[in-house]
Amino acid sequence: MKLHAYFRSSTSYRLRIALNLKGLDYDIVPVNIVKGEQRGAEFLSHNPFAGVPLLQAEGRDRAQSIAILEWLDEAYPERPLLPRDPEDRFTARELAYAIATDIHAINNLSALQYLKNELGQEQAAIDTWYRHWLTKTLVPVEARLA
């Protein structure tokens, strides 16, 4: 398996954690998203979503971290990532989707660069945006975990 990833990407962290919990061997292929390497023709030929992570496994290119996590659990069920109890599984998914959709979707590098480069926002305004959405989601996440 090859995991195309950026070392500071939370979506890449998800996959590295899962692959290690499952005890699966993989090689890291660094992709510098700050330099825009994910938008190069070679990378796009494997992942038209132009993001990391990209997992190459069993002759296929797999994108989108949550979908990859689900595939890993189905393809390699020996060490499950999710708890057995349906309620606990629901809570795990609920928290994962909150992070993936309510935080990451609007606070990833691409979104933050858009605020700065396309909308002309100053860094202080971007930092305020980031803190607002991070807090708005992490407070209920922490409450759910309590």
Summarize the structure.
The chain has 146 residues and is α+β, with helices and mostly antiparallel strands. The protein folds into 2 domains: 2-75, Glutaredoxin, CATH 3.40.30; 86-145, Glutathione S-transferase Yfyf (Class Pi), Chain A, domain 2 (Up-down Bundle), CATH 1.20.1050. The protein has helices spanning 10-21, 41-46, 65-75, 86-107, 109-117, 123-145; strands spanning 2-5, 27-30, 54-57, 60-63.
How would you sum up this structure, described in words?
Helix 1 links the parallel strand 1 and strand 2. The protein is an alpha+beta fold and 146 residues long. The model has no long low-confidence stretch (mean pLDDT 95). The longest helix has 23 residues. It is 57% helix and 11% strand. It has two domains: 74 residues, 3-Layer(aba) Sandwich (Glutaredoxin), CATH 3.40.30.10; 60 residues, Glutathione S-transferase Yfyf (Class Pi), Chain A, domain 2 (Up-down Bundle), CATH 1.20.1050.10. The chain contains six helices and four strands; from the N terminus they run E-H-E-H-E-E-H-H-H-H. It is flat. The N and C termini lie far apart (36 Å). Strands 2-1-3-4 form a four-stranded mixed sheet, covered by helices on one side.
